[in-house]
């Protein structure tokens, strides 16, 4: 064999060896590629799952924050409710004092000055309550509302609409439009209404 043929054989052998060596490498690369693709897919799925968890957590935190803000607002608005309930008998007493002296003509200057003082005190007291959104309910002539009024009795009142408030025995009050105390009222009954057996 000549040197050229020898060289050609060596080159052929080297090429064949490279091909043989390259085949398993290619198969190995394909296996590694498919494993890498599976890892990438599972990682993407995990990332997406974690993103969804983060979004859910953020939404939950916003809901908690909103609820807390609403609770704080309610606490701020209605913190005075018990205090107001304790003050309402004072307003009732002052109103009764003014009403008791209203129709009486007195020549006594002391009684007149006391009445004026009580009226001024009542007016100042009601203005102070109004500053904190405490409003009186005096529903004379309005339709009876069981959510705001407490019916003490039903009376015949030909001049009034049936189921309307004829008289207020005790004013009701609201705090920020929430009922603190219902108004105690007398309600007009319809003249042709059937009689109810109250003894039953």
TrEMBL record:
Basic and acidic residues bias locations: 1-22
Domain of life: Bacteria
Keywords: Chaperone, Cytoplasm, Stress response
InterPro entries referenced in this protein's UniProt entry, alphabetically: GrpE, GrpE_CC, GrpE_head
Primary localization class, coarse: cytoplasm
Keyword Calcium carried by entry: no
PANTHER family recorded: GRPE PROTEIN (PTHR21237), GRPE PROTEIN HOMOLOG, MITOCHONDRIAL (PTHR21237:SF23)
Function: Participates actively in the response to hyperosmotic and heat shock by preventing the aggregation of stress-denatured proteins, in association with DnaK and GrpE. It is the nucleotide exchange factor for DnaK and may function as a thermosensor. Unfolded proteins bind initially to DnaJ; upon interaction with the DnaJ-bound protein, DnaK hydrolyzes its bound ATP, resulting in the formation of a stable complex. GrpE releases ADP from DnaK; ATP binding to DnaK triggers the release of the substrate protein, thus completing the reaction cycle.
Protein name per the record: Protein GrpE
């Amino acid at each position: 064999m000549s040197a050229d043929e020898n060289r050609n054989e060596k080159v052929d052998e080297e090429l064949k060896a490279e091909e043989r060596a390259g085949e398993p490498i290619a198969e190995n690369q394909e296996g590694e590629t498919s494993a890498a693709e599976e890892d990438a897919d599972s990682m993407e799925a995990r990332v997406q799952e974690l993103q969804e968890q983060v979004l859910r957590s953020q939404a939950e935190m916003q809901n908690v924050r909103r609820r807390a803000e609403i609770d704080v607002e309610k606490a701020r608005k209605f913190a005075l409710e018990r205090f107001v309930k304790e003050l309402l008998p004072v307003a009732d007493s002052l109103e009764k004092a003014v009403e008791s002296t209203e129709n009486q003509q007195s020549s006594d200057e002391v009684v007149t000055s006391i009445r004026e003082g009580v009226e001024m005190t009542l007016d100042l007291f009601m203005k102070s309550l109004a500053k904190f959104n405490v409003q009186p309910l005096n529903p004379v002539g309005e339709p009876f509302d069981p959510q705001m009024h407490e019916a003490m009795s039903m009376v015949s009142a030909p001049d009034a609409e049936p189921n309307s408030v004829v008289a207020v025995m005790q004013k009701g009050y609201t705090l920020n439009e929430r009922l603190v105390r219902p108004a105690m009222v007398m309600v007009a009954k319809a003249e042709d209404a059937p009689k109810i057996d109250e003894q039953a």
